Amino acid sequence: MTEASMIGLLVATVSFGALLYLAALGELISEKAGVLNLGVEGMMAMGAVSAFMAAHQTGNPWIGLAVGVLAGALTGFLHGWFTVVLGAEQVVSGLSLTILGLGFAAYMGKNVVGRPPGGVLAPVDWGPLTDIPWAGPVLFGQAPFVYLAVLAGLATWFVLSRTRIGLALRAAGESAPTADAAGHSVVGLRLGAVVVGGGLAGASGAYLTLTLTPQWAEGITAGRGWIAVALVIFGAWRPGRAAVGALLFGGLLALKTRLQTFGVDFSPILLSMLPYVFTITVLIAISVRSRNRPSPAPAALGTTYRREER
Amino acid sequence: MTQTAAVELVDIWKRFPGVVANAGAHLRIDRGTVHAVLGENGAGKSTLMNVLSGVYRPDEGEVRLDGVLHRFHTPADALTAGIGMVHQEFRLVPSFTVAENVVLGAAERILRRQDVEARVDELARRFGLATEPDRPVWQLSMGERQRVEILKALWRDARILILDEPTAVLTPNEANELGGVLRHMADDGRSVIFISHKLHEVTGFCDVATVLRGGETVAASLPVAGTDAATLAGLMVGSTSLAGERPPARAPGEVRLAVSGLCALGDRGLPAVHDINLEVRSGEIVGIAGVAGNGQRELVQVLAGLRSATDGTVDLGGKDVTTDPPRRRFGSGLCYIPEDRLGVGLAPRLSVVENAVLRSYAQHRRGPFLLEASMTAHCQDLVDRFGVRTGPLGDPVAGLSGGNLQRLLVGRELGSGPGVVVAAQPTRGLDVQGVKAIQDLLVAERDTGTAVLLISEDLDELLTLSDRLLVMHQGRILAEFDPRNSERSIIGEAMAGHLPEEGAA
């Protein structure tokens, strides 16, 4: 393995890691508020196709990004409306939105399959910083999405652990009656969290079609939304640990496409199973450890809240 | 009285489908007092407090604070007006720290952890509520959790604090400490409303008492100092007598239930039951007293086969059933009246008939098919024999009142003619008649020679019914008393974990 290919692998690790991290942060915020969102894959697909089409029409990839975020947020709003406002089963709604999102994205993007993008979000040029050996290309040769993911991660950590709204949001996810009794709107907090989460999933989808590929094709999300869901569990519902997990899982994705070029004879199919194997291991570790302490999962995750009436 | 009252509830009416919960109730609370609101279950105490704290809107009547008329639409309105409520079931987030829980309802936009913890600590010290602001709530005892609830209200500067049966989860010592804290708050100019039906606490902690019965105020603002407990009790129950007559004892026969060296784990995987040894003989009622959460629940579950024992044995009528599943124990003559009557005991959405035959359905079938007529006849028989008041037998059981649910459940269990009855909190939450009916059934069952193990948090009930009384503390049987000649205070000490000098009989 050459030095260049090693650097290439690291660059791709960070790049894929950011892709997964954006979507996982969205899922994390939603789950922290108590809403399980299994529609991430569909929201990514909606974000991906909308971003690509908007950029294709306007020639401006930033407009593409904005439209992608909006499309994801809108799909998230649907999930929130069904589950938080109408009280539908979260698993059913999430799975339906994955299927719906994938199908609807394919239908919308029929005419732009294989078309050239209207514009891409190319790597940012940090000047001399980019020339630092190793660190230069890996840390400073990345697309805007990578820096967006880092900022989103820091913001999520700060808001969740250091602000009033974060405290209220976590309370809504741990014990909705408590949050309600303290004067917070559980419906508002949860709906807001799912919408923001959908927006981040949309951004992750936009990253695919505006930078990584950059093209639209049906099935372009290729199960990464599911890895994002697994990543939240792997990261024990913490933005910091999820970042570590994102780099690990991103590394696996990067390795998968490069295995052959490195001349390693290992099945890429087995490799793509690894994130899930890791996640199941972490789940088991959590449940073994949590015999004496509460699990790190939000206690009210997946439940519907209705103010009790006599 | 010259000053305006801190709280004035005038002629409050609140109706629910089929029930009038408040029928013209009055309440007047002065600043700087600890005011008891007394009444039996169903007297309308909770409804009245829910009106004051904005959970319910009254159909008629006025809520005045410092003379000003208020109309609360949500609990948040009442909070803003300075009313803090400590519910019986705590509203706390277990994974949050004490400080996070305290400030949840009223925090600044940006939280500086150390700063918040220091301020919570300062507030706690000011009112003598010892606590550690940085500890997660799930690690705290019930008494500590209650202090966090009180701190929450104080953090929002509640002028009026409502405590709904605050001592139900406390040891006697913790309850006394709570009394001190309440006094502290009253001296600070706040008003404390103390809802209870434990008379000795009312006479111990409170300045004034208001008694509710049947949704009405039957005595308003009685000074506690000039009133004795018997008068208050009389006001609470009206014409029915509270003092239970001890049923005559009966000579116990052979050992029906024998437990030796029994140990078990609690829900968190920590030991909850340690080395329990006990025997219940035919024709006797053995009572187990203890403050909630001292392993009684786990012990009962092990006896019923719903929780596995880590050590020791359970013997039913001379047969070792330690590893038997519930069904086999039932076959060996055990009957179990669970504490959670509408979850473990009865299936809320199934009909009265279906619930009545849950144990005995196998007797009402032909081949794989159930016989409707036979089931209904059996159910009708139980309903008649045990005086269950019910609508159509095909309706879901969830529509029955607490007392009738319990009659149906007890009837179903006793109807099979068991050798051993394990009854967990069988009268909790029932009204006077319901309590009496269930107690009579248990005594009648004993008189037919059944062995009865009765677990209760109501010491008076245990003193009246038991032939022998065991006290459980931290998973162990700490002492045994003869209920005929033991002092309440000594039993109370034992419940708090203080071994009597010579208690064992």
Q: Can you tell me the overall shape of chain A?
A: globular
List the total number of helices of chain B. Answer: 17
CATH class identity of the largest domain in chain B: Alpha Beta
State the share of residues found in helices of chain B, binned by percent: 25-40%
Instruction: Work out the count of structural domains of chain B.
Output: 3
- Put simply, the count of helices of chain A is 12
Cα separation of the termini of chain B: 54 Å
What is the second-level CATH architecture of chain A? Answer: Orthogonal Bundle
Describe the structure in brief.
Chain A has 310 residues and is mainly alpha-helical.
Structure keywords:
heterodimer; A: 310 residues; mainly alpha; ABC transporter involved in vitamin B12 uptake, BtuC; 12 helices; globular; B: 505 residues; alpha/beta; Rossmann fold; 3 domains; 6-stranded mixed beta sheet; 22 strands; 32% helix; 26% strand
Report what the structure shows.
The complex is a heterodimer of chains A (310) and B (505). Chain A is mostly helical. The mean pLDDT of chain A is 91. In chain A, helix 1 packs parallel to helix 6 and helix 3 runs antiparallel to helix 9. Chain A has a single domain, classed as ABC transporter involved in vitamin B12 uptake, BtuC (Orthogonal Bundle), CATH 1.10.3470. The longest helix of chain A is centred in the N-terminal third of the chain and has 30 residues. Helices cover 69% and strands 0% of the residues of chain A. The relative contact order of chain A is 0.21. Chain A is built from 12 helices and no strands. The model of chain B has no long low-confidence stretch (mean pLDDT 86). Chain B contains 17 helices and 22 strands. Chain B has 3 domains: 167 residues, P-loop containing nucleotide triphosphate hydrolases (Rossmann fold), CATH 3.40.50.300; 66 residues, no CATH class; 241 residues, 3-Layer(aba) Sandwich (Rossmann fold), CATH 3.40.50.300. In chain B, helix 14 runs parallel beside helix 15. Chain B is α/β, with parallel strands linked by helices.
